[in-house]
Amino acid sequence: MKRNRIIEHTMALSALLLVAQSMPTRGQESQKPSWTDSIKVKGDVRLRYENIDKEGSDARNRERVRARLRVQGKVNDEIDAGIGIRTGGKDSVSGNQDLSGGFTSKEIAMDLAYVQWKPELLSGVTLIGGKFEKPFFKVSDLVWDGDLNPEGAAARYKLGLGEANLLINGAVFSVMERSKDSESFVYSGQAGVDYKNDSGFNMLAGVSYYYYSNLEGKDVIDWSDSYKGYGNTITKTVDEEETVTKAVYDNEYHELELMASVGFDCPLTGLPLKFYGNVVRNTEASDNDMGYLAGLQFGKVKDPNSFQVGYNYRELEADAVVGAFTDSDSWGGGTDGKGHKISAAYQIAKNWTLGATYFINEQGIKDGSDSKDYKRFMVDLAAKF
C-alpha cells in the first residue's frame, strides 16, 4: 500500500512537471504565472545552542530549532489575507523545539490567520481581524514577548506630519473563552509620535494601556498544564494527596506603559546608536506592581558584514504584567525577576546572521531571601528567505 502511494505521488509530480514544461514562453524565459503577483511568501529557520545555569539546579545544555513560514495574498485593492505556521506547538511565546527525543518529528502549529483591510476612503487606517502580529509599536519586550501573536481585532491609524507621524492603535483580544464562566479579554489603546530625518536622527515616544477583564479569581493561563503563574501571584487548590488541582490569579491586570527611544548616527563612527526604555505599572495590584527597562544598541544588522551590539537592564515585579505573555527568555520567562541582557549579532551574508545573547539575572525577587541566580547563554544562526 505504501509503495503504491509513492508511485502515485511520483506520477502526479511527473504530470505537473510536464504541464510546466508545456507552458508558453516569452523569449528565453518562462511566462510568470499571474497568481504570483498577488502572493508573498517568506520564512525563516533559526538554529540555537543554549546553556542554562540556574542556582540550585544542574546546568542544562540543549540545541533547539525554530521554523516559520508566512503567506500573504492580495484579495483585492483594499484587502489582504494571511496565514502562517511555525514550530513550537501551543506555547504562545516560543516557537523553539528541542532537538531531542530520539529524532521525533517536531510539532507544527497555526501561528497566523487573518484578514487585513485598508479602506481607500479612510487614508492611514488599517483594520485587521483573526490571529495576527501585534499591532502595537514598541521599544522592547518588557510587556509582550516578541514571538507572541494575539487573537481578536485591531485598528491602526497613521497620520503623516512632515518628518513625524502620529500613531494611534486600538485592539480587543480574546484571552480566554470559558463555557461556564465569564470570558477574559484585553482592551488595548496606544498613542505616540515617531520622527525621522535625513541626518539619521529618529525618536519614538508613546503611551499604552492594556485593560484585562475577568482574570482575578480565574484559572491561570498555562499551556504547560502545570498550574504555574509565570511569576504572577496566584492561589493554588490542592487535594487530599497534596496534588495541585487548580490555580487562579490573585489580581486583575490594568497595565499602563510609557516608552521612548532616541537614535542617531554616532559622530565618531557613523554607525547608528540608540537609547531606549519603558516603564509599566499594573494599577490594580496593591504591591509588586512595577516594571522598567533601560537599554542601548550600537550598530545595526542590515547588510552583509554589518553588526550590532546591545545591552539592557530590566526589572519586572511579580504582578506588573501578565507573566504568560512577557519575554520567555529573561530569568526563564514571566515576571518576578531582574537582571542584565547582553547581545551581539553579525550578518555573515545576505539574510544569514550569527548572534549571541547572555542573560545575567535573578529569579524570584518578590521575596529577596528566596531569589536565585539565573544565567543563560544562547548562540543563534538564523536564515531568512
Characteristic key phrases:
385 residues; mainly beta; Porin; 16-stranded antiparallel barrel; 5% helix; globular
What this model shows, in words?
The protein has one domain: Porin (Beta Barrel), CATH 2.40.160. 5% of the residues lie in helices and 53% in strands. The protein has one helix spanning 2-21; strands spanning 25-26, 29-30, 39-54, 60-74, 79-87, 97-98, 108-117, 125-131, 151-161, 164-176, 184-196, 202-213, 234-238, 244-249, 254-265, 272-282, 290-299, 307-316, 337-349, 352-363, 372-384. It has a 16-stranded antiparallel beta barrel.
Q: What is the annotated CATH architecture?
A: Beta Barrel
The major beta sheet can be summarized as: 16 strands, antiparallel, barrel
Name the CATH superfamily assignment: Porin
**Domains (count):** 1
Category from helices, strands and their pairing: mainly beta
- Helix run count: 1
How many strand elements? Answer: 21
What is the C-alpha radius of gyration, as a whole number of Å?
24 Å
How are the strands of the largest sheet arranged? 3-4-5-7-8-9-10-11-12-15-16-17-18-19-20-21
**SSE run:** HEEEEEEEEEEEEEEEEEEEEE
Shape: globular
CATH topology: Porin
Give the helices and strands, then pairings:
Layout: H1 2-21, E1 25-26, E2 29-30, E3 39-54, E4 60-74, E5 79-87, E6 97-98, E7 108-117, E8 125-131, E9 151-161, E10 164-176, E11 184-196, E12 202-213, E13 234-238, E14 244-249, E15 254-265, E16 272-282, E17 290-299, E18 307-316, E19 337-349, E20 352-363, E21 372-384
Antiparallel strand pairs: 1-2, 3-4, 3-21, 4-5, 4-6, 5-7, 7-8, 8-9, 9-10, 10-11, 11-12, 12-15, 13-14, 15-16, 16-17, 17-18, 18-19, 19-20, 20-21
